[in-house]
Hints:
With 122 residues, the chain is of the alpha/beta class. It contains 3 helices and 4 strands. The protein has helices spanning 43-50, 53-75, 93-105; strands at residues 2-9, 19-22, 80-87, 112-116. The protein has a 4-stranded parallel beta sheet, covered by helices on one side. Helix 1 crosses helix 3. The longest helix has 23 residues, at 53-75. The protein is globular.
Amino acid sequence: MKITLFSFGYKHGFPEADMVIDVRFLPNPYWVPELKPHSGCDPRVALYALGNESGRHFLEYLEPFLDFLLQEHASREREQFTVAIGCTGGKHRSVAVVEHLRRFLDENPFPLEAYHRDMDKE
């Protein structure tokens, strides 16, 4: 089963995916002047978005849930499973989460593709 992860911004349109996760509840680096120009690929931005109580709890729940879903879908011989992670603009929080999940899923046996649909948009 091929896994596709991608980040997106709600302000750029709703995506087509098997599962959509809204991360607009996480702290937004957009409002921090020194972080705003950088994407969620930057470790400082990722730490701001995920290195807090909300971010840590979210990942503690998301990782085993996603692992469970992938195993269940694979056992039913699905060929593909697409997960879209969304924040307001698609540059900071959703990108940080996708990059985290890319590292988390690297050890899974499934082929993995990850991309950032709206990261370069304003």
